[in-house]
Amino acid sequence: MKSQLYPMTFSPVYKDYPWGGSRIPKTYNRGMPDGIYAESWEISDHDDGMSVVANGELAGKTIRELLQASPQEIMGTAVEGTKFPLLIKLIDAKQKLSVQVHPNDETAAEFGGEAKTEMWYMLGDNAAQVYCGLNDGVTRESFRQSIEDGTSGDAMRPVPVVKGNAVFVRGGSVHAIDEDCFILEIQQNSNTTYRIYDWGRMGNDGQPRELHIEQAINVINWEDRDSPLVEPVTQVDTDSFQCSEVLACEYFRLEKLSFNAPLEVPMNGKTFHALFVSEGEATVSWGEDALTAPAGTSILVPAALPAYTLNGKATVLRTTIP
């Protein structure tokens, strides 16, 4: 299968969580019927939403089928096994999300569930706010009391955000996304969420959504006081190409690439490149083939590809494994 591999696009997997809006299909002209599109799982090897190839001769195959046949050729030598290590999604929070927490590697091993460290890259033109981490002085006992009082939202640290900001949410950090946030989320491949408080909201079935108080208390990192806002590091700054490292952690690395001239990108076999065109329109070419990628397109470039070229005038967010 190695000779068949090429940069792949996937059919998005949409989620209609009750807090969502319709910004994703409208912003990126996806031609979807009216409805709630809270999340779009762009690249996912998860039972709760499996990516299916949309372009080329592999169209119709799931990402899991491809990974089981050619794991190293797709993911690279930095990834062991056959499971894609990340889940990449778009989030449109028309309403605020629940107060929640995810386990980290250690607490997932101890208490169960899937570990999830994530980051949010803000895509919306509007100023907004998220919550990440607990305020100084909040303890296990005082937080449990705030849950009982329905005031746990007040215990979290508010973080004002604007377009281009990046927020690092470690497993164990209590967090929530406020209303009117439009986000690209990069995360460990997990769908474990322990919901602490849901602002009195009803689910799509008209009933309150399930809470997971004890699980949450067990996995919260009570010592987490680090600032979640991440400062990008400029790596290249020329007239035709700018590149900055937005975030690098042990699970993933995100870079922002802006270009207005052809840019050849070599691959070294260590990692895949997951591309998201956040602005403009890019052409991705390899060998004698190419695909056009308007804003809102996600592309998985297999690690085995020797190189590819980006062209056009665009901004691309590139996720790799460090």
TrEMBL record:
Entry annotation: catalytic residues: R195
InterPro entries: Carb_Metab_Reg_Kinase/Isom, Man6P_isomerase_Firm_short, MPI_cupin_dom, PMI_typeI_cat, RmlC-like_jellyroll, RmlC_Cupin_sf
Pfam families assigned: MPI_cupin_dom, PMI_typeI_cat
Protein name: Phosphohexomutase
Domain (Phosphomannose isomerase type I catalytic) ranges: 11-110
Residue ranges occupied by any Mannose-6-phosphate isomerase cupin domain in the UniProt entry: 248-319
Keywords annotated in UniProt: Isomerase, Metal-binding, Zinc
Domain of life: Bacteria
Classification via CDD domains: cupin_PMI_type_I_N_bac
GO BP, one annotated term: carbohydrate metabolic process
Record PANTHER family: FRUCTOKINASE, TRANSCRIPTIONAL REPRESSOR MPRA
Binding site for Zn(2+): H102, E118, H175
Note accompanying the cofactor annotation: Binds 1 zinc ion per subunit.
Cofactor: Zn(2+)
GO-annotated molecular function: mannose-6-phosphate isomerase activity; zinc ion binding
